[in-house]
Write a structure and sequence with these properties.
Length: about 200
């Protein structure tokens, strides 16, 4: 007896690509406009032109949706090629970090999300594990390669080095809001290499 054709489920959790893109843009826009605390699934669905139920089928909560969208955007901007040398690897990393911190929407979202995470331990842990750890893992690879090439001392404190690389730029751009200058990344790379005792 021939099988009956399967009916496409109406409640599929996978969104169409164009809807996924619209939702991603809507989440970023809502975060930039209203902040994490005031963002709602309803507002995102309305802005994206999607059904609220479609969002809930994919993400059970606002936090899950926000973290998923930000993680995809943030980790993608941390990826860069292995150039074979510490300075050029570092410059690629700094350019990617700079693009992330100065992105027109992310520059507004990040301070608000950081403040909200300070009040919400569950959100803080989600940000750390889905955004922070993957980005730091890429940075760790960069430093480990440099250690293997003997461009950095074997006893380099990788965790401290990662804080130094990211924290310096974050402080200048997102806390001090200081001027950069056209050669900012080059000068920063030179200072970091000296601080890391690079050979």
């Amino acid at each position: 007896m021939p099988e009956k054709p399967r009916r496409t489920p109406t409640g599929a959790a996978v969104l169409q690509p164009q809807i996924t893109t619209a939702v991603t843009e809507a989440v970023m826009a809502e975060l930039a406009t209203n902040g994490y605390a005031r963002l709602s699934m309803e507002a995102v669905a309305k802005r994206a032109g999607a059904g609220k139920s479609a969002l809930y089928r994919r993400w059970p909560s606002k936090q899950d949706m926000v973290i998923a969208v930000l993680a995809e955007f943030s980790v993608e901007l941390a990826e860069f090629a292995d150039t074979g040398a510490l300075r050029t690897d570092l410059m690629a990393s700094l350019r990617a970090l700079h693009e992330w911190l100065t992105h027109s929407t992310m520059a507004t979202i990040l301070p608000d999300l950081t403040a909200e995470a300070g009040r919400n331990p569950v959100l803080a842990e989600a940000v750390r594990t889905t955004i922070g750890e993957p980005r730091r893992a890429l940075g760790t690879q960069l430093l480990r390669r440099a250690i293997e090439r003997e461009e950095l001392p074997a006893d380099t404190d990788v965790e401290m080095a990662l804080d130094l690389i990211a924290g310096t730029m974050f402080w200048r751009l997102n806390v001090r809001h200081a001027e950069e200058g056209p050669d900012y990344l080059d000068r920063l790379a030179d200072h970091l290499l000296r601080a890391l005792n690079a050979r």
